[in-house]
Design goal:
Shape: elongated
Order of helices and strands: HHHEE
CATH architecture of one domain: Orthogonal Bundle
Structural class: mainly alpha
Strand content: 5-15%
Distance between the termini: 83 Å
Number of helices: 3
Length: 124
Amino acid sequence: MAAKKTTAKKTTTKKTTARKPVTAKKTAGKRSAAKNPTTKKGATKSGDKKMSALDAAAKVLSGAKEPLNSKQMIERMEANGYWISPGGQTPASTLYAAIIREIQKKGKEARFTKADRGLFAANK
């Protein structure tokens, strides 16, 4: 049998250098209201807030005569101008998950009811 050769591993220590503290840049106050009419949370200058996807879905379902799936809700929300996807790849799946979460969290107080597999109606 041949004996295994072992080699000693070289260990090196890194030299630490003192870092200078990072100072925050003072950008607050540089934006003027004329250049950017919206605020952080999406409110416009006049005080109107953008509607969330769940709020828009509740509004669509309250006007619908039959239960809708999440894809149909997204299409109607965009057609009516209530809510437009900010560019996500699966807005219908995100809406579906949010509706399910609200139903589980709020129970009978939720704005939605599950009518059938994948179909939701407004809770009246």
